[in-house]
Amino acid sequence: MVRVSVVGAHGRMGGNVVKAVEGAKDMELSVTVDAGDGLDAITPENTDVAVDFTVPSATLDNVLSLVSHGVSVVVGTTGWTDDKLDQVREAVGKHPGTSVFIAPNFAISAVLADYFSTIAAKYFESAEVIEMHHPNKVDAPSGTAIHTAKGIAEARREAGLGSIPDDTKSDGGSRGQLVDGVHVHAVRLRGLNAHEEVLFGNAGEQLVIRADSFDRSSFMPGVLLAVRKLSSGKYQGLTVGLNNFLDL
């Protein structure tokens, strides 16, 4: 049995993780903590893998603390920068036997949409990303959209493509955030859950890749997959992206 502790257990995502772990035949729920609780109760003696679904302002400290105590972590909280990822790499390097997995998105549909986008990117002159979420989401654009945009940009560089055409001179912010040369737009609308649309264009044609997660339960198979992978001991250090655990 894989012993799993959940940080952020009373949150919307954390609560779903608790239910998913309790429903998994190969896992048992060990410790649950939430905002205001310390992490000292989570130790290698009672936890094989901790799952963090908290907020961007807290997740780095949570991960560094858990790793320092010898606990591996699956992270679903977004807001990760290159600097923060470097801090995690340094931490796991100092604590052999620990591993950290961070996913911009745990939905299989979103991971595949991201993967398909990197394949399509080299064939199109234009590309833009639109992410749509519920209004309670605290970050914009989403970590998934940023990850998608960076993947598109890298694929374009490898293909020797130039800048995406855009003659806009003054847009008042309507062109969205520029992520590695790719425009990313964020929509916050009541009734939505988590959705991403990637638009590719050439003269006379368009390709649209879209992923929709209508309920938070869509993320749970990915979370449980990540927990199983980390508990196997085959993955050391920092791993980013659920695509690393899929046969793509």
From TrEMBL:
Residues 113-246 form the Dihydrodipicolinate reductase C-terminal domain. It catalyses: (S)-2,3,4,5-tetrahydrodipicolinate + NAD(+) + H2O = (2S,4S)-4-hydroxy-2,3,4,5-tetrahydrodipicolinate + NADH + H(+); (S)-2,3,4,5-tetrahydrodipicolinate + NADP(+) + H2O = (2S,4S)-4-hydroxy-2,3,4,5-tetrahydrodipicolinate + NADPH + H(+). Coiled coil: none annotated. One of its GO terms (cellular component) is cytosol. The keyword Oxidoreductase applies. Keywords: Amino-acid biosynthesis, Cytoplasm, Diaminopimelate biosynthesis, Lysine biosynthesis, NAD, NADP, Oxidoreductase. The keyword NAD applies. Pathway: Amino-acid biosynthesis; L-lysine biosynthesis via DAP pathway; (S)-tetrahydrodipicolinate from L-aspartate: step 4/4. Its main location: cytoplasm. The active site is at 133 (proton donor/acceptor), 137 (proton donor). One of its GO terms (biological process) is diaminopimelate biosynthetic process. Belongs to the DapB family. PANTHER family: 4-HYDROXY-TETRAHYDRODIPICOLINATE REDUCTASE 1, CHLOROPLASTIC-RELATED, DIHYDRODIPICOLINATE REDUCTASE. Catalyzes the conversion of 4-hydroxy-tetrahydrodipicolinate (HTPA) to tetrahydrodipicolinate. This is 4-hydroxy-tetrahydrodipicolinate reductase.
